[in-house]
What we know:
inorganic pyrophosphatase (n-terminal core); Diaminopimelate Epimerase, Chain A, domain 1; 24 helices; elongated
Amino acid sequence: xxIKYGSIIDFEQKSIIANLAKACGLQFDTARLxxxxxxxxxxxINRFLNAGKKNFNxxxxxxxxxxxxxxxxxxxxxxxxxxxxxxxxVDGICAATILYKTLTxxxxxxSVIIPEREEGYGLNLETIERKIENxxxxxxxxxxxxxEYEKIEEIKKSGxxxxxxxxxEPPEILPxxxxxxxxxxxxxxxxxxxxxxxxxxxLSHALIGEKADKYLDFTAIATIGDSMELVxxxxxxxxxxxxxxxxxxxxxxxxxxxxxVRKITSGTIAYCLSPKINAxxxxxxxxxxxxxxxxxxxxxxxxxxxxxxxxxxARQNDCExxxxxxxxxxxxxxxYNDDIILVGNENWKVGxxxxxxxxxVEEFNxxxxxxAEHDGFYKGSARSMEGxxxxxxxxxxxxxxxxxxxxxxxxxxxxxKDNFExxxxxxxxxxxxxxxxxxRAKTLVAEWDIHDKISYAFAKEIELLEPFGxxxxxxxxxxxxxxxxxxxIKEGSAHFSFQTDIIDFLDFNGAKDVERxxxxxxxxxxxxxNVSSFRGNESVKAFLKGIEIDExxxxxxxxxFFEKQLKExxxxxxxxxxxxxxxxxxxxxxxxxxxxxxxxxxxxxxxxNLPVSIFAPEKKDTSNCVVVSxxxxxxxxxxxxxxxxxxxxxxxxxxxxxxxxxxxxGIVDTLATGRDVFSAVYSDLNGISGQKFINICxxxxxxxxxxxxxxxxxxxxxxxxxxxxxxxxxxxxxKKNDKIKSALTNSEIYCRICFFKGEIK
Length: 761
């Protein structure tokens, strides 16, 4: 993992920030956070920190709003039947719910059609004809319609009027009807990033005034669920929506939340509510989601929520299966060489391809479009990364597409099978012409490195920056630390904790980080600051997000790597006889780990700038890499190339193309295996027993003046003693068991080292 820092401030800027902090009554560091996010005046800070209804824009500033309202008033006066046509995702379902409840309150009898994903996105005349129960004279779209000029003209010919409310990128030819979309250029509305439900809320407000505010919970859920930027009016909407959710939670949401949720945040929406509402559409039953949001009895709500929860679990399993297939296809067909990855399969479900595309972007650090077959053509879901406008790239190939639409970071596209490879070629060519200088180095961004103890006041003020989300991310910081002992927060827990001079840490699912934290070297910890509450008491905590270790330090950790490898030997009890292979070409690509036991041996090979990590590959995309002291192999790797002779071969499901190439572990030749050395170290340990223990190397460093052998010899001997039970660890203290009497040859570690030294066969 690589960390980069945000804006660097100079002396003059520090003075500006200090003045802002004083004027706004903030901690200096809080003002610095805001300043670095371009919230750099007193007015901007006050606007940002005081988000809410008072900042809402007048809905009638939206082009087409007055015409839409006039037509709805006419429908009310004529007692017309109105049809709301929505979309199958969380935004479309929430938008349809807002408008349905609004029109009902307004005095209009409305019906709703939520098309299923298999029926396609946007106005579908066949769906309307099949599902409509009563004749209608007005159709209002939510979260769709902006690209449906021809379909709308066909509808109008049958005597039905249409109102379009949408937020997607407008095409060159707009619908010839009242159309409300903040992205249409040239209008007076000052904010263009509302979601579909945000536009529906604006229409609701234009119809029933402040009574529409009770629907801000739906609007907030949709805004976060549709990954909209949480700035300006979206920040106001989500702030007010969270107030509604926490003050008077709708019964329809109760069974979608886990029992331990005490406060609903933007994270609760992003990871709990939105995915479950979305799950209906992804599993081909979006109408269950709409039905839940509009259910009137407790039994209905419970049964519908149970169904959505089960859909969500099934969705997670299906997505994981498709992700594995897609990753394998990308690697086997070497699609990873493309600048824009297009991958598809006729058997994948359309409902999951967007989620899979997002995960592949994270893994391969490139824009990705995942396709599935639909009605004889390929339907794709595109996801991109910051700074690469995927809508713009796809738009350049519109002449060969059946349809497309979306945003800069996410889009949908349909293409015939015959044009699929041409689309791949065109998109990659356009990328090279427009983004060839784009820096794709994957890094995590921190605000700055913290050296002093973090105050409660600063931690509390960070909460003022919520809600966090796109364009207003939760701030991360770093701290430089040395050797850390991380422990489970309680027996059997998957979550770990540890202390530093600046803040106490929580590490969720932290077992994976124990070895790296314990390294006796400097490392940077990336973390998020939180205020935790327990039994009414608040304390400042850091949530660990990543660890960065300078590769230049690896050469100083060779003895520690040796210790970790010895510890693994008893888990690999069979002796392995190695045959040196011819030289192996080290190259970039995917699916291969180049493993080295002795870091000093790495200088004998040309690793072609491959990333070097310790214990396991850091990246999840199975890209070729060098691993020092390989202890863990993630799924997806096909080959391990041992660059020096390892102490053991990993028992994993990789193809049997494992090579051992040339040098041995240089430490082994320096080790003595005689009983006299073990007796000497045993005597040394008598004076050390009872000391705090983190690892053998650190124990040696604290006591090296009283130990009669060098560090590597000490690591070897004590590893053998630990395996035999002669010494052991209890409550983080090293202790001796005088009752244990055992031959050295009962130790797998001892026998393996003797084997490598050629002392036993």
